[in-house]
Specification:
The chain is mainly α. It is built from 7 helices and 4 strands, in the order αααβαββααβα. Helix 1 packs across helix 4 and helix 2 packs antiparallel against helix 6. The longest helix is centred in the first third of the chain and has 21 residues. The protein is globular.
Length: about 160
């Protein structure tokens, strides 16, 4: 699996210009998705990756934004390959959720637009990687969370 630039991710998570840039990107993405009127018909079953039969992949830009926007700290708690932020049927990190979480809907009518939308947004995310000088990588979500947690600086004593 690819490694990720953890120090750069942490720096970006504290950069107001970076946060605004991703806010703008995700606002446009969310508006396009809302205009399509998709429905969540499985109520978070897709967050149980192993059971649902898929994986979520993220980039360093998405990880930095997740850290910046999430009120909960990244966790390596990955009980049986499920998203640790899916709690009691709800996403506890909705504002900072990665692109795949924003785009994926399992209803059949949504399948036609998801791949083109994903490719388009990944191109925009790659542009942000270049703009903010962060190496591009595409890493499985739970693996990335583990890496971030394993390298987390200890609290000051």
């Amino acid at each position: 699996m690819s490694s990720i630039p953890i120090d750069r991710i942490r720096t970006l998570a504290a950069d107001p210009d970076f946060i605004v840039a991703v806010d703008v990107l995700y606002a446009a993405l969310d508006a396009r998705i809302t205009a399509r009127q998709p429905r969540c018909i499985n109520r978070g079953l897709c967050c149980h990756f192993a059971t649902f039969g898929h994986k979520l992949f993220v980039t360093p830009v998405e990880l930095a934004y997740f850290i910046a926007k999430s009120e909960v700290r990244p966790t390596a708690d990955t009980d049986s390959e499920s998203c640790p932020y899916h709690v009691d049927g709800r996403c506890t990190t909705r504002d900072g959720r990665p692109t795949g979480c924003r785009i994926f809907f399992c209803e059949q009518v949504s399948q036609a637009w998801q791949s083109p939308e994903t490719e388009a947004i990944l191109d925009e995310i790659k542009t942000l990687h270049a703009r903010f000088d962060v190496p591009y990588a595409y890493v499985e979500w739970l693996h990335a969370l583990r890496l971030i947690c394993e390298t987390e600086a200890p609290p000051p004593t």
